[in-house]
Amino acid sequence: MSNSIYKTPTPINEVVRSYAPGTSDRQLIKAALAEAKSQAYDIPMIINGKEVRTDNLVDLHPPHETKHTLGHYHKGDESHVKAAIEAALAAKDKWASLSWEHRASIFLKAAELIAGPYRMKINAATMLGQSKNIFQAEIDSACELIDFLRFNAYYMTEIYKVQPDSSSGIWNRLEWRPLEGFVFALTPFNFTAIAGNLPSSPAMMGNTVVWKPSETQIFAAHVIMEVFREAGLPDGVINLVFVSGAVAGDVIFSHRDFAGLHFTGGTNTFNTIYRKIASHLDDYRSYPRIVGETGGKDFVMVHHTANPIEVATALSRGAFEYQGQKCSAASRAYIPKSLWPAVLERLKVDLNSMKMGTTEDFSNFINAVIDKKAFDFITKYIDNAKNSTDAKVVIGGEYDSSEGYFIRPTVIETTNPKYDTLCTELFGPVLTVFVYEDDQYTDTMKLLDETSDYALTGSIFAKDRYAIDQAVKALENSAGNFYINDKPTGAVVGQQPFGGARGSGTNDKAGSVLNLYRWVSARTIKETFVPPIDYRYPFLGEE
C-alpha cells in the first residue's frame, strides 16, 4: 500500500478548435454528424450500471429539423427514481472510501476521452439534439466539459490540503467527508458541459448521485454517461433517469437521505423546489446543500465614450450566439442617445449578414430555438412589441416553424424602462435596447439595478476610466459575473468562476474550488499526545 501524497496534473484550458475550411476537424465532425443521423438511437436509463428500458418511448428530433427522428429514449416513472436512489445509497460507502486519487483518475480519464475519441461524437450529439453550431458545441460539449473535469480534480486536492494549525502537544486535522446521503443533479438543455459537471462534481468529492437531465438534452447526456462508464465509473455512483421533474421531485425531496441539490434551470422551478425542500426539513437526516444557478436578465451598460463598433459586436455575439439561449446572454442594453444611431447601423449590418438554418451547414450562425414551447413563448413577445405603443422592432422579428423552430435575431427599441422585454427572461434571440440621454448615466445605472430581480451577468462599455469605476461600484450587486468592455457571456473554467445572486441563484461559482466545497462536510479531529492527569488549573494554586 502506497502512502504517497499525490499531485494531480496541473490543468490547462482545452484549446478551442476552429473547424475552419480545409481542416481535418471539419471533415471529422461532418462525418460524425452523418453517422449520427444515419441511425435511430435507442437510449435507456442507467441505474446501478444497468441499462433500463420501458414501454414508454419518446422520440427525439433536432430542433432545426423536426421531421427527422434521431431515435427515442425510454421514459421512466416513480419506481425508477426509487431504484436510482437505492442504487446511489448502496454504492455510497464503497465509493466514499475509495482513495481520492482513484476518483480523480476516473474523471481525468473521462476528460481525455472527450478530448480524444469522443470529441466528435459528443459535439455531434450537441449540434443535433440542442441545435448548436459547431463552434458553440466545441466550446461547450468539448472544451468546457473537459475543463470542468480537469480543474475539479485539481480543486479537489486543493481542498484536501486545507488543514488547521496545531499548538504544542496536539495535532489538529480536517477530514473532508462527502455528504450524508445522496445528491440530486437536475441539469438544463442549453449546455452539455453543465449537464456533465452537475453530477460529476459531487461524485468526484465522494458523493453518489441521481441525475435527471432536461428532456431536450438527453441525446448528449447519453454520450456523457457513455464516457463516464468507459472511464471506469463504478455502478451506482451516478444514476441517469429520464422522468418528469414532478415525478422526480415527489420522490427525492421527501426522502430522508436527500443530502443535496445541484441545479441549473429556471428561477421559478428553483423557487418551487426550494419551498418543497423547506417543507420537508423535519424529514431529512441533515440540512441539504442547495446549489442553484437559475435565470438571468443580463445587461450591457454603455457610456457615451464607448466605441460603437465594439458595442455592436459585443451585442451581436452576446445576445445572439446560440440563439440567446444562455443564462448569460445579453438581453437588455442601455445605450446613450449620441451612440445609438451608430450602434444600430452596425447591428443591422451584423444581424442581416447572419445566416440561419441547420447546424450541418457551417455557414449558419443562427440555428433553431430548443422546442415549440420556447418558440411560442418568444414569438408572443415579439408580436407584442410589433403592436406596442412604447416599443418597436428595429431589426428582425420574423420567425418560422415549418421545418424547425427558427426565429430571426430581433432587436426591440423601447422608451419604457419597465417594458416587458426589459424585465422578463425570454431565453431566445431577442435584445431590448433602452436609449437614454447622455447626461443620465448615473440615473440610468440606478434604473438598471432596480429593473430586474436577476443578478447573473452584466458588462460596462466605456473609455472613460472614471465612468468604468462608477459602474463597477454602482452595479456591485447587479451581476455575479461583471465584464469591462466585453460581452457578458463566455465564462471560462478556472478563469471566471460563474454564478449570480438575487433571483439568479446561490452564487456558488461553478468552475472554481468554491463549488466543490458545497459537496463536502468537514470534520475536525483533535489529537492530544499527552493528556492531562489532573483537572486543576494553575490559577487554583495557593498563595
Please explain how this structure is put together.
By secondary structure, the chain is an alpha/beta fold. The chain has two domains: 40-58 and 69-294 and 505-525, 3-Layer(aba) Sandwich (Aldehyde Dehydrogenase, Chain A, domain 1), CATH 3.40.605; 298-484, 3-Layer(aba) Sandwich (Aldehyde Dehydrogenase, Chain A, domain 2). 38% of the residues lie in helices and 19% in strands. The chain contains 16 helices and 23 strands. It has a seven-stranded mixed sheet, sandwiched between helices. Strands 9-8-7-10-11 form a five-stranded parallel sheet, sandwiched between helices. Strands 1-5-4 form a three-stranded mixed sheet, covered by helices on one side. Strand 15 (399-400) and strand 16 (406-407) form a beta hairpin. The longest helix has 28 residues, at 134-161. It is globular, with a radius of gyration of 25 Å. The relative contact order is 0.13.
Question: What is the gist of this entry?
Answer:
The chain has 543 residues and is α/β, with parallel strands linked by helices.
